[in-house]
Design goal:
There is one protein chain. With 142 residues, this protein is α+β, with helices and mostly antiparallel strands. The chain folds into two domains: 47 residues, Roll (2,3-Dihydroxybiphenyl 1,2-Dioxygenase, domain 1); 75 residues, 2,3-Dihydroxybiphenyl 1,2-Dioxygenase, domain 1. The chain is built from two helices and ten strands; from the N terminus they run E-H-E-E-E-E-E-E-H-E-E-E.
């Protein structure tokens, strides 16, 4: 789970329960824990720095827009994985009984930007998307 040091992002998100966030990101996803306090926890999220900050008033489900016939949360984040890693993660989450808000599937089939994708919510209602492309050159296809 490493990234090019020139391309590592830092994202801070609100959570309403640090123990639930730690179980979700640390245990379910296997993210390495970093620094922490009683107000936040750092995670290595697929080579990127994700910080969960205790801020219950900021939590809640995002508004959605229709994308390829699905209600996609407007506010979301995630990573682009290799097809093999995407399938393995989807299978692991399914085996753990994870509830998806958009089940694993192929979006834009046969069109520019065809991609595997799925969405889920963390315990605080933050939406996550995981994608894969058979051809990574399609990532920014018009």
């Amino acid at each position: 789970m490493s990234a090019n040091p020139g391309s590592i992002f830092h994202l801070a998100i609100p959570v309403d329960d640090l123990a639930a966030a730690e179980a979700f990101y640390g245990d379910l996803f296997g993210c390495e824990r970093g620094r922490r306090s009683d107000q936040w926890i750092d995670f290595n999220f697929f080579g990127h720095q994700l910080v969960t900050h205790l801020a219950p008033e900021e939590c809640g489900r995002a508004v959605t827009n229709s994308v390829d016939g699905k209600n996609v949360p407007v506010k979301h984040f995630g990573v682009v994985l290799s097809p093999a890693d995407w399938k393995a993660l989807a299978a692991r989450l399914e085996a753990a009984g994870t509830e998806f808000i958009i089940e694993p599937g192929i979006r834009f089939k046969g069109e520019p930007g065809e991609q595997g994708t799925f969405f889920l919510l963390d315990p605080a209602g933050n939406a996550l998307e995981f994608k894969c492309f058979q051809n990574i050159d399609q990532l920014f296809a018009a």
